[in-house]
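Appendix B, example 12.
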Amino acid sequence: MTFLEAAGRWFLESGIQGPDGGVARYYRSNERQNAPVSTEITGYTLSILLFLHQRTGNAAYLDAAIRAARFLTRQGWHRELGTFPYEQLDAGGGYAYFFDCGIIVRGLVSAWKTTQDSEFLETGVAGGHAMLADFAGARAIHPILALPEKHPVEQPARWSTRPGCYQLKSALAWRELFEVTGDEHFLHGYESALGYALENDPEFLPGTDDRHGVMDRLHAYSYFLEGLLPVLDRAECLKAFRAGLDRAAGYLRDIAPSFARSDVYAQVLRVRVLADARGAVELDERAAAHEAEQAASFQADGTDPAHHGGFVFGRKDGADLPFMNPVSTAFCVHALALWQDHKTGRVPKSEIARQAAI
């Protein structure tokens, strides 16, 4: 069984996706239970399921993707509030994250492109308008809103609770909605996010004296590199991408012996391959081969369907961490598939155009 087949079976058979289409944030192997369902993770899983269907033609992936998309449109989208809440609202309210909303919208747009089901595009467009109306600040994008009031929340402790260049990946939702609808408000949203991201880029890494914290920030910084992929024809963006890729790869090599995240290996590899396929940055074959080898090493095996085929979140001091992660699995599968394509000399145009939607 190939790495792709094993990972695909994990998505379909491990129980990480519930019957209603929602996907758990992760499976905790030492406790043998799933974390709560997450709208963001369901959005990521929707995108990888569509990729697996496109890659293999297996209708089971499309069926699972449609369940995920309908979960997002019918349960994830809160019609009264006009947003995608983080996990589930409780009596005391809850939160909405800009980043999560962008990932969900991109997944729904991809689902519409595959199925032509208007429900997916209508909710995606509504989500994109809500992102413009609710999260855009005077200079930067508010990362978190408190619900139901939609007041910005400032929590300076973590990168994910502060504005930063990493938000550019979710801002790609606006660019993709512009391409579908022609609404220039969406394009202006992406361009504004791009300008802020380029300003924030020099400040984001390392961002902390804690080396393990830098590894976590590499995951976020790779989102910035992904967000730059469609504009590498602009000199300023290409310069930032080349310098950023070198910095990210250097920190990854330096920190990995004590703490490595599988998704960071995959993200760095993926932007390398896609930038090369666009003719923007020649691929460093030796570095890419190492990153592919390391990413592949995180795939679990064995007879337990809750483990087999999924990718472990990370590794500290040589020991795997007890988290089977849908996003890590999605990133690693997509990156390794692109690496295979590169080695055979045929990165599909559809994957170049996908702009790392996964």
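The radius of gyration is 19 Å. The first helix runs from residue 3 to 13.
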